[in-house]
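Batch job 17 of 40 flagged for manual review because the log was empty.
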Amino acid sequence: MLAFQKIGFEIYIATAIPLRLVSYVKQWLAKEQIPYTKFFRSHRNCSKSDIEAEALVDDAPEEVQSFLRSGRQGFLYSQPWNSAAKISGAILVKNIDDVLKHYGVRKDEGGAYRDIRWLGRN
């Protein structure tokens, strides 16, 4: 997590899953090595476009589309149930590294994340 903070990123996790499944989501995040600053459990009737953030990564096409309509960046996390979705302006990603590459951040050989924007290459 500290590596992300050093390069100016905060990662918020927002999910509408039932409360009884929150621990499983957190286990999955740890297994996938997805660090986060804050974890939110939202209500099903709330839109994630209400979250104050620059970008959204989600597997729900309607959430990504709503976020894009608010003028911010939307990333569609590729899953079997959304493979047919076509959302103008959305960037399809398979993992957190795909998202970070969009912002000029790469993982080095040692596994540390580095901001390479100042190097002038992606």
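Reviewer: the log was empty due to a logging misconfiguration, but the result itself is present. The chain has a mean pLDDT of 83. Unflagging and moving on to job 18.
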